[in-house]
Amino acid sequence: MPDFMVHSIPGSPFGRAVLATLVEKNADFHLVGVDPRSIKSQPHLSMHPFGRVPVLEHDGFRLYETQAILRYLDRVLPSPVLTPVDPKAAARMDQILCIADWYLHQGVNNVIGFQRIVRTRLLGLPPDEPAIAEAMPRAHVVMAELSRLLAGNGYLAGAEMSLADIIVASQMDFLAQTPEWGPLTAERPNLPAWLARMNARQSFQATTWERVAGMAKAA
């Protein structure tokens, strides 16, 4: 039986971050596909009382919240190391993880990505254009700051890839499927170049929406 069980919705950037981390670690895992219509009811609420994904199960231990899961995986699967050893680089990684949760997702991806992708592709409804327009100034602030932090470095926290790159790339690849991506990155070419490098990794090729949907069907 696989060592790790991940409960997630195909297409979820948060679920993808966990799955991509497991692939980076060469870990054996099993995906349990979650129906998005069921996350606010039982039995899912018994695993995640706030009705979200992903949820990780490992050796009788259950954990939710993506940052906590990623840090746990980096501790129990120490190779390759995805947390910088240098304290300043590690602090930068922590800062960017918070940016991803509180600013890239909240108010940006959960508006633009939701309206452009989830609302149209999954719900069959037209996007709320005023909501998208309202989110764009916030999105520019977030993208400008991530571009500044990346600068000319190979990765967000420095020369080596870290958990920050995995969680931000999972969010940005979702946002990159929207027409807003072009205006948001037109003056920040280091971000699309970095995302292209991340998407070229085996961990991201193996965890596209289509691949994860296939895993869920095969489960």
Characterization of the model:
The structure is a single chain. By secondary structure, the chain is an alpha+beta fold. It has two domains: 4-81 and 204-218, Glutaredoxin; 87-201, Glutathione S-transferase Yfyf (Class Pi), Chain A, domain 2 (Up-down Bundle). It is 58% helix and 8% strand. The chain has ten helices and four strands; from the N terminus they run βαβαββαααααααα. The protein has helices spanning 13-24, 44-47, 66-76, 87-122, 129-150, 163-175, 181-185, 190-199, 202-205, 209-218, and strands at 4-8, 29-33, 55-58, 61-64. Strands 2-1-3-4 form a four-stranded mixed sheet. It starts with a strand and ends with a helix.
Topology overview:
Blueprint: E1 4-8, H1 13-24, E2 29-33, H2 44-47, E3 55-58, E4 61-64, H3 66-76, H4 87-122, H5 129-150, H6 163-175, H7 181-185, H8 190-199, H9 202-205, H10 209-218
Helix pairs in contact: 1-3, 1-6, 4-5, 4-6
Fraction in beta strands: 5-15%
Q: What separation lies between the terminal Cα atoms?
A: 13 Å
Q: How many alpha or pi helices?
A: 10
Provide the CATH topology of the largest domain.
Answer: Glutathione S-transferase Yfyf (Class Pi), Chain A, domain 2
The pLDDT mean sits at: 96
Q: How large is the radius of gyration?
A: 17 Å
Poorly predicted runs are: none
What is the CATH class of the largest domain?
Answer: Mainly Alpha
Task: Give the structural class.
Answer: alpha+beta
Q: Output the strand order for the largest sheet.
A: 2-1-3-4
Count of discrete structural domains? 2
CATH hierarchy: architecture of the largest domain: Up-down Bundle
